[in-house]
Amino acid sequence: AASEVWCGQGFGQDKANLLETKLGYGRARVHGTGEDGNRYTEEGWRFGCGYERAINTNVSLRFGLDYTRYGEDENQIQGKAGLLVKF
Predict the structure, then answer these.
(1) 68 burial level (CB within 10 Å; 0-12, 13-18, 19+)
(2) 20 to 30 A from 29, CA-CA: which of 11, 38, 73, 83?
(3) CB-based contacts of 12: which residues, under 8 Å, 6+ apart?
(4) In the 8-state DSSP scheme, what is residue 38?
(5) pTM across the whole model
(6) What is the pLDDT of residues 12-43, one digit of tens each?
């Protein structure tokens, strides 16, 4: 689960480009067990950025990168790409 706040700004002559930033707090349940035999949950801050390009009014491409830091020793970097279609 994650709570996130997004901000974006359109740009370009046709306003078909969008830059996005993200700030959030995430929590992940880990299915393994710790040294004490209990399952545990990791929590941390998430930062991200992305770019979206509208191809037309119904189709766009999106690329993004998220960085999440769990505690002092764990972090995650996740890249995403997608094709968005409105019906």
Answers:
(1) buried
(2) 83
(3) none
(4) -
(5) 0.70
(6) 888 899 999 999 987 776 666 667 666 667 78
